[in-house]
Amino acid sequence: MEFLSVSPESLKRAAEVLRSGGLVAFPTETVYGLGADAYNPAALARIFEAKGRPRFDPLIIHIASSGTLEDAANLSLLNSETRRKLFLLAENLWPGPLSLVLPKSEKIPGIATAGLSTAAFRLPGLVAAVELISLAGGAVAAPSANPFGALSPTRAEHVRDGLGEKADMILDGGPARIGVESTVLDMTSEKIKILRPGGTPKEKIEELIGSVQDGFFTAEDAKNTPKSGFISPGQLKSHYAPRTPLSVFSENDIFNLPWKPGDAFLFFDSPSRNTWFESLSPRPSAKAVIRVLSPSGNTLEAASRLFETLHELDSLKISRIFAQLVPLEGLGEAINDRLRRAAKLG
Ligand code: TXA
Ligand code: MG
């Protein structure tokens, strides 16, 4: 496995690896992806093998320009109203943390989409990623570059630790700017639905195309939808889980937590941490491990530090993490979704 920093030379080299059927882990603005040529079924199969990922789990097709949609998606299956909405979203929110589920064209092999007739497409908001995709032929299928069910990687080192030699190359582009995965929006039926909350807040989507539904079900809901025959992994309870047991709490529960010295606290902002700390009287002699996602209480900053902080806490060999739920503004919904899944609450 080659581990290289992003540069014009390493991007060229990575594109060669992709073109010859190899796997390249690459940075995006959300999390690192494990990429393969989206038109090469054998290369795609290697992604599932490397991640230990069930075959029923479809990949996101990363594209370098919205023009590729004409090739890789079958837009003629959309009605004119949906097409209008698609163009609005693509024009205003791409490049960016938004994956659009659309009917796929014949060119995308079934293994990329778990046999579904639809595929998720995304034009990522990181120049190096777009250059790589373009050099590699225009379409790179990539899930997050972590072993199945584990925390998503926001740094190249996380990929190296999680997947190691299973990737042919890891491109290091530094820490991911956004730090949670893209929002997945299903545009294949009349009712447009968010399948996974993520880096694009719902309000931004609704400003452009009007109201959309929340289609991210709990595991319980998923059991009651036999017709679709398909559960998005975002809907599996244990997804995005750290190894350390984690429970979530809301601000009001903060004073009743049965913590022990050596447990870790993950607070949203400094005021919450301070309130909790001041309530400890008398002060305990042994300390808890304390992290604050965003001292000033900004959900964008909190999202960018979420997985990174969970990776770090995982490495500290503590017995438990107590994580505070965050306000629902901005990326709050995506953060709480990942925290609840980490807590295996579905
Ligand atoms: O930010 C991201 O989206 C990152 C970076 C690498 O782009 N990628 C990522 O991929 O998170 P992955 O494979 O870990 O998650 C893809 C999500 C899954 O929840 C999957 O079920 C959903 O997208 N998805 C993909 N294709 C779909 C389809 N045809 N229908 C419904 N959901 C789909
Ligand atoms: Mg993933």
Question: What does this protein structure show overall?
Answer:
Mean pLDDT is 89; it is low at 225-231. The two termini are 35 Å apart. Helices cover 32% and strands 18% of the residues. It is an alpha/beta fold. It has two domains: 2-229, DHBP synthase (Alpha-Beta Complex); 246-342, 3-Layer(aba) Sandwich (Rossmann fold). The chain is globular and about 65 Å long. It is built from eleven helices and 15 strands. The longest helix has 17 residues, at 299-315.
Name the descriptors.
346 residues; alpha/beta; DHBP synthase; Rossmann fold; 2 domains; four-stranded parallel sheet; 11 helices; binds threonylcarbamoyladenylate; binds magnesium ion
Helix-strand layout with pairing:
Elements: E1 2-5, H1 8-19, E2 24-26, E3 33-37, H2 41-51, E4 60-63, H3 69-72, H4 80-93, E5 98-103, E6 118-122, H5 127-135, E7 139-142, H6 156-163, E8 169-172, E9 183-186, E10 193-196, H7 202-209, E11 213-214, H8 219-223, E12 246-249, E13 264-267, H9 270-279, E14 289-292, H10 299-315, E15 321-324, H11 332-342
Parallel strand pairs: 1-8, 2-8, 4-6, 5-9, 10-11, 12-15, 13-14, 13-15
Antiparallel strand pairs: 2-3, 3-7, 4-7, 5-6, 9-10
Bound molecules: threonylcarbamoyladenylate (TXA) and magnesium ion (MG).
Threonylcarbamoyladenylate binds next to β5, β6 and β10.
